[in-house]
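re: that chain from earlier
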Amino acid sequence: MRQFLPLARKLRDMVDHQALRDKHMAVAHKAVCGAGGVFETTEEEVLGEMHEVFVNRARSLREYVEQTASFDEREFLVLEDQRLTYQEFRHQVWSAAKALHEDFGVQKGDRVAILAANCPEWAVAFYAAVSIGAIVSAFNGWWTPAEIEYGIQHSTPKVLIGDASRLKRLEEIAKLPQDLRIINIDGDFVSLLRHAPDATAPQVPIDEDDPALILYTSGTTGRSKGALISHRGLIGFVQTAMVNGYIRGMAEVNLQKDLAAKEGREPPTSPEPPPQTIVMGTSPLFHVSGLHAGILMNIVIGGKIIYRRGRFDPEHVLQLIEKEKITSFSSIGSMATRVIRHPNFHKYDISSLRTTGSGGSPTSPALQQLLRDSFPTAAASLGAGYGSSESTAVITNIGGSEYLERPESCGRIGVGMEIEIRDENGQPLPTTQEGEIHCRSAYTMLKYWDNPEATAQTIKPGRWLATGDIGHLDEDGYLYINSRARDMILRNAENIYPIEIEYRLDSHPDVEESAVVGVDHPEMGQEVKAVVVPIAQHQTPLQTQQQLTEEQLSAWCAETLASYKVPTIWEIRTEPLPRNAAGKLMKADLAN
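^ sequence. v structure.
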């Protein structure tokens, strides 16, 4: 019995903490979202359905640019020697907007495609286009010529704005539309900035539910689909992220005060917030992390974003964190571990960091702890969220002590969001039962661009969004995701969720990253294959790659997993796992 006492105490403490957290969350929510609150909410009809929305909100993204006057002298976008203040940025946006309309004939509803690496011009082009009611078609900067051709044919842009290296790929496209106008960021883009330096905000009427963005899905299972997102949706992303963080932060502070008083100790003190949020802009701007959480969020809070050129370089990231006093570093894919594992990691001053995280795929408990240990000044802020291109806003979120207690959860439902777990017939399931996650809000995508069949499969009656993810809600309202429905492995009639095995493998001290896929088998249906990347030799002085064997990994998995879940096919490789630009694993490439 004695060996079970620590576990029993831990469970009892979790229950006590949860009760206190629930109380403080409810108080914070009422104070923030109730009548007269900073984020007061109300019920309104949006696209035929009643939704919770914010009373005080911008009605178009153009208002975000107009509101930057309060940050005029602050720097907003930095790339090497380019250092753009908010005032300079605003003037450039208004000038470029006028040029797009007058010189290129861009009208409300026209598409303006952007195909470029992260740079200030990307942000200027985006805000200029949406400010005149155009729709930005965000092309993936990693696309091949064939994929670029598909994007052009699919969204039929009137103008394509790109950098020189990516525009060069157009030479391999046999036939471009004759009326497509092309603007080279590295050449003639400057003419847009000089077109009307004294221009003011455009006056084109824009409705909240007018489309602003075609955001292409990751395309890990075929042709990318273009999620059509409204001004309301993008503004909603920003406001829901802010209010959810605000409520959780208030509740966490008061929870820690209560726990300290209960234990007879002084409550922990929160560090003073930095005068300006300074973000390491590692995520691509055609991705939610780079666009929504980057240039949309930071233009509202007056933050600064530091970009860099070229392929991801972990040491250069460390240099920039030290030089620019970066306060926020969120990575996608394996970026964070590559930074942490770099042999010169401890030579750099990273004490300016206040927030950190990892996205693009679920963050295993082992990686969460690695982030806390490696970035101690940002450890308390570590959190996670769950959403998609189609949901636009973050559906659930978690952070602080609750993330420590529930490391495999992606949190509770955010303000303005609704969730249902449904069975294969589309019927809602009771709490704790597993099924497909459906969500809805005022911010859900309008549709898939030019794809009514996919839209009908994804947006259900009542504008419920079928996410394709499998999960369940626990008794306290926390969401747990087990796997993408298409990733589930069926072995001898047993359902196997790859993420459970991946979490176990990632906790091995010599494993850098892993992926688990199903491989066809003539008798069992499928068998389990694991692809494992060991930590590089120079990063593990006590152990080496050669010591990591299939037998050791099998034994490691067998310690905590049922025998049918232990992989029977192993691939130990030295190169990183294949990922797309959004940081998501390309699992289809691993099944062979």
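The chain has a mean pLDDT of 91.
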